[in-house]
Amino acid sequence: MEIFLRVLFSIIVFLVLFILFIVLYKINKKTKVPKGARELERDEFSCSHCGHSECKFFISKKKEDK
Amino acid sequence: METSAAVTFILAIISGMLVDNVLLSRFYGCCSFIGVSKKVESALGMGIAVVFVIIFAALICWPIYNFILVPLNIAFMDTITYILVIASLVQFIAIVIKKYLPKLYNSLGIYLPLITTNCAVLGVVQANTDMEYSFMLSMASAIGTSLGFLLVIVVFACIRNRLDSCAVPKCLKGTPIALITASLMSIAFLGFLGMITL
Q1: Which residue of chain A has the CA closest to B83?
Q2: What integer is the mean pLDDT of B119-147?
Q3: Which residues contact B188 (CB under 8 A, 6 or more apart)?
Q4: DSSP, res B9
Q5: Are the CB atoms for B146 and B153 separated by under 8 Å?
Q6: Which of A9, B39, B93, B142 sits at a 20 to 30 Å CA gap from A20?
C-alpha cells in the first residue's frame, strides 16, 4: 500500500509540474517578437556587414549618425 | 535575524560569489559562459536572466522539497521536480523578455531556452538539498552563486571585447584566446580560496 501511494504521489507531482511547463511553453510559442527588433539590435551593437562591434566602418558610421 | 545569522547570510553570499564561484571553481554553465560573452550587453542580459532563474528556482524548490516531497515520502523525485520547475521558470522569463525586451531576446538567441540545461541552476538547487541548508542559507547560496555568475560573465565579456582590438596571434584568435583568458581568470579566483569557511 505504501509503495502504491508513493508511486501515485510521484505521478501526481510529475503531471502537475509537466502540465505547468506545457502551458507556459504554449504561451511562449504564441508570444511574438515585435517587428523590427532584429534590425534595431544589429544596427545598435554591431556592423550590419561583418557583424563585428569593433569594425572601423561601423564605428565611423555611428559617429557620423551622432 | 540574529547578528550571527546575518553574518552567516552575508558570508554565504560572498562565499558563493567569490570563493566557490560556480563558473571558475566548479565549472558549471561553461557553455553559456563561452557562448554569450562576445558582447557585454548580451553577457549582462544572460547574467541577469540566470540570476533571476537561480534565485526563483531556489525560492520555489526549497518549499517544494521540504513541504511536499519529504512529507509524501517521495524525496527521490527531487531532481525531476527541479528540472521541471527550472524549465517552467525559463519559459516564463522567455515570455517576459520576448514581450518587453525584444532586442535582448534576439541577442540572447538560442542561449535563452538553453538556461534550462544550464547546470549552474540545477547545481545550486541540488546542492541546497544535498547540504540540507535552511531556507535562509539556501537563499544566500542562490544569491551568491548567481551574482558570481553575473560578475564573471560580464568581466569575461569586457576582457574579450578588449581582446578584439589587440594583436593576438592568428592561431589563438577567437575561442583559443577566450579559453586561455578563462583559465587565467580561474587561477586569479583561486586567490580567494580559504578566505571564508562556513
Answers
A1: A17
A2: 91
A3: none
A4: H
A5: no
A6: B142
CA distance B152 to B158: 10
Confidence of residue B153 (pLDDT cuts 50, 70, 90): very high
Identify whether the C-beta of residue B160 lies closer than 8 Å to the C-beta of residue B36.
Answer: no
Contacts of A38 in chain B (CB under 8 A): 106
Each residue's pLDDT tens digit, B71-129: 998 999 999 999 999 999 999 988 988 888 887 787 777 777 878 888 889 999 999 99
Mean pLDDT, chain B, integer: 87
Per-residue CA distances from B151 to B44, B48, B115, B177 (Å): 9, 10, 17, 20
The C-alpha cell that represents A8 in the structure block: 501515485
Residues 31-70 of B with CB under 8 A from A: 39, 41, 68-69
Q: C-alpha B77: how far from its chain's center? A: 23
**Full-prediction pTM beyond 0.80?**
no
